[in-house]
Design brief:
Length: about 325
Amino acid sequence: MTQAMTASPRPTGPGTTRHLIHCPVSWDHCLDAPGMAEGHFVLADRVPQRHPLFNDGGSRFHDQQTVIESVREVGEFVGHRYFGVPADRPGLFYRFDLELTDLASWHSGPVADSRLTTRLRAVPTHVVGGVPRGLDFHVEVGIDGTPCAGGSAGLVFLMPALYATHLAHARAAAREATGAARARPRTTRQVEPASVGRECPDNVLVGEPETDATGRLTAPVRTRGLAPVFAAENGLLPGLHLLEALRQTALLCAGRGPGLAASRSVLAASRVHFRGYADADTPLACSAVPGAVERDRAGRPAVPVALTLTQGHRAVAEATTVVVQDF
């Protein structure tokens, strides 16, 4: 028998109402006492209607980054509240995997106020002294009761000294990258918003790319003069900024080469691995390599795209995606 309990991690975005429901697997954990058994949660939400980023653009799909951002927002809270991780250990997501299993459910269409349900199974990892150093999340997503996506995420909790070391390393690498960029100044022009599935210029993160003889596309990534949703945190770019840069570069690459239309396309599958922090004041670039055009199970055009996000010579994030164009 299980008992559902509601917690209230701080949500973001205008008009956000979100409920995190803890579903203990036994009565031993029904009072929310920290434990090492896997935890089960339900994140009850609504598909955004007025979000400054997720509802910007002419795409016929709901933005799947809604799910990733929600998991990112509650993950650290879950570790501190339900697994006894000390409050001075910040949580850092280092990987996200998400696959859309029912594209029809993701159509934005005329139906408003759709229910978005995300089921999370949290498994503690690297337990030391009864405290996990990380959590693995297994994710199942439904819209209006229809299962439509699945994936996973990895979260690590850093000791304060280790966190400070990571920040110092990121800033030292950023200074080196800044010096190299000043030695090779380059003027960039922002791409058209429609080519990356957006309408508002302040939400466009990528500049006009260069393409080499192999088809590899490399675009500068904007870090200044952007919409408030991309505001830096402690001098570092937020995860949403990096994820959106990867998404936009993948759509741009699939459009410039294979010719897929960004307004009709979606990242039907994505696997992202974060390798470090990104400094907010340092030039950033994203490279993309498209594969051959394929067909998904419904016969839609599908293009695999491999991406690397870099500052200087340092990889900040790597991703493999599949861009699918709807009929």
